[in-house]
Amino acid sequence: MNLKGLGVAMVTPFNQDGNVDFDAIPKVVENIITGHADYIVVMGTTAEVSALSDSEKKAVINAICDANQNKVPLVIGIGGNNTTKVCEEIQATDLSPFQAILSVSPYYNKPTQEGIYQHYKQIANVSPLPVIVYNVPSRTGSNIEPSTFVKLADEVDNIIGIKEASGDMDQAQQILKDCASHIQVISGDDALTLPMLLAGAVGTISVLGNALPIPLKEMFHYVETGNLKKAYALHYQLLDVINLIFEEGNPVGIKALMESMDYCEGTVRLPLIKATPSLKERLQRALETSIFTL
Predict the structure, then answer these.
(1) Domain locations in the chain as residue ranges
(2) Among 104, 128, 192, 255, which residue has the least CB neighbours within 10 Å?
(3) Is 290's pLDDT higher than 90?
(4) Is 48 left (phi over 0), alpha (psi -120 to 50) or beta?
(5) Confidence (pTM)
(6) CATH topology classification for 5-213
């Protein structure tokens, strides 16, 4: 799969009563598609996948596929800290609508680098789809070191890229320097999309893209055409909104922004709680004064 460009880590909309809002799913998908995103990631962290039942996951996936109608490629998140269970889930899932699997590094267990290597090797060996490694140490409690990922990329044919969300540009650049040219490095942090692109990343998997895909695609265009002055200007215009949507956690902030834009409710499931009135007010104010309002 070509991971170049804008991928969007899609939210799962909930009604005010906390049930999945199936009426809102087509609205969110349509906004992402009409904003010219290159692919959608479903069942990732932003989807609150850990708070969904198995039956809800299947229903949400089906609703997204129906709304997408094969307009853009889909990537599915399947990961966890039980290697055997992850492999079983991959084998039990209908993967026909998807082009790749995004699999988060094992969390809580805090494995060694060799444990991380063996975990991904087993997953890649059972997966019929290409696998994207997802490194997000702020959530998992352990970091995939550059040498570990480079070893995986060199030795496991089915691993095609990494969503790098360590927030460490030195680490990202080490991966970009040492990996073979066919390995795709993707930014996993909205605030670092532009620096990562300029360092050699092929794209980003964005949270902000749920609400504002158009300015993100515009920034990609500026980079591709060499207009770095405009790319940097847009990057800094987006930065305040990006910081706000992550201030109280993800997807709390992005859902509050999307509620302001009438795409879905701001409801999240415990242990997450809705955005505070202060954050909602600041997001609304940022939206009203933003050049991104359509």
Answers:
(1) 5-213
(2) 128
(3) no
(4) left
(5) 0.96
(6) TIM Barrel (3.20.20)
